[in-house]
Amino acid sequence: MTHVSSSERPSVTLDRAAEVLAPGDDGYAEAATTLFAKGTPDLVIRPRDAAGVAAALRYAADTGLAVTVRSGGHSMAGLSASGGGLVIDTRRISGVRLLDPSSGRVRVGAGATWGAVADALRPHGLGLTAGDTRQVGVGGLTLGGGIGWMVRRHGLAIDSLAAVQIVTADGRLIGADAVEHADLFWALRGGGGNFGVAVGFDFIAHPVTSVHFGMITYRAGDLPELIAGWRDLMRASDERLTTSLSFMPATPGHAGTVTLACCYASPDGDEAEEALRPFRALAPVTSDGVKAMPYADILEDVTSMPPGLRMEVRNTFFTTFDDARVAAVDELFSGGGAAVSLRAMGGAVARVGRDATAFAHRDAEVMAAAAFMIPDAAPPGLRDRALRRWSRVNALGSGAYVGFLGSAEPADVTAAYPPDTYRRLAAVKGRYDPANVFRRTHNVLPS
């Protein structure tokens, strides 16, 4: 590994194209630290544009530094941070520009956050479905697929994607869309950061002003009955309604909770009430915070993890959420120590062909995710025991959403995709990054 001290500055050319931070510099610690990991890179480079990204990649090639790419820094596997090597921090490439008000075509810098995108589109009565929190980066979430609060109404973030501007490993800036570099465009829609450094995305935004959004908290007695009831209602619900049923375990000073988060993608109060009425009857309701609000206001602020804890996150898709899978989810949560979330799919997601994008889980009814909070001082084996419990749920599922995948182990990455999708991704990887420069990702090996 090549190490760079603060006294060994990169070339003047690179300094003009980007901000350069080495250990000890002001701003280095913040740039090296992400939500789920604290890194110690040899160098952080913050390009201002595509030319700066290309210069950073040339510098990494010349010095032998491994490359990590960061946008919002919310990778649950810690892939936005690195121990050693070079971090390309894209957060200065963050513009949001409405290119065509009539079609809703908007160009978004890869380092922008979804909160900034929502704020920029709000005055135009437009929005994009993506993310749960304001600070999540556009680049990382989009390349993984993008499951958001209007997913049943408007599909994944990638289903609104018209083009990507990307700098490849050899420093070329290329545009990928359905015509130019169509194979790469297919791979970028769900294949993660394997193929280059995305610097811009063209989306087609949707008309959206206010929605009905909030949390309904239940006093749950029979948990399997509640889960099965949610499943049945979810299957029959208006696709303007996207819901997520979550279970939080009890912690010292806090009781466990069962919460339905919901977004009805319409300002019509009567329609929202009609759609939500059966969900409010699932179990005794202890609080109900659903109300009309601007779409841009539904994204939450999440900036840090509780100190002394690390989070292991896993997920899988259920094509059919039958009673056996309901029982497995109940067993996982009732065993303690895991926060569990069930996110409704279907609707617009399912109307896109399985082979149309690298995100291939189009027939999924539900995405099931679990987060295990592991204390830093936990005894050896606690993590392995938690993941063994998850494996019983995972065995009933199919694949995974890389955006919520807290592991970058090769076996887990391979299993995230159907075999034919993975083979196709590997072929595209071989064409655009044969040397596997972008390996600090949920890495697909080049074929």
Automatic annotation (TrEMBL):
Keywords: FAD, Flavoprotein, Oxidoreductase
UniProt name for this protein: FAD-binding oxidoreductase
The keyword Transport is assigned to this record: no
Cofactor(s) the protein requires to work: FAD
Cleavable signal peptide: none
Protein family (similarity comment): Belongs to the oxygen-dependent FAD-linked oxidoreductase family.
Top-rank lineage group of the source organism: Bacteria
FAD-binding PCMH-type domain: residues covered: 37-208
GO molecular function: FAD binding; oxidoreductase activity
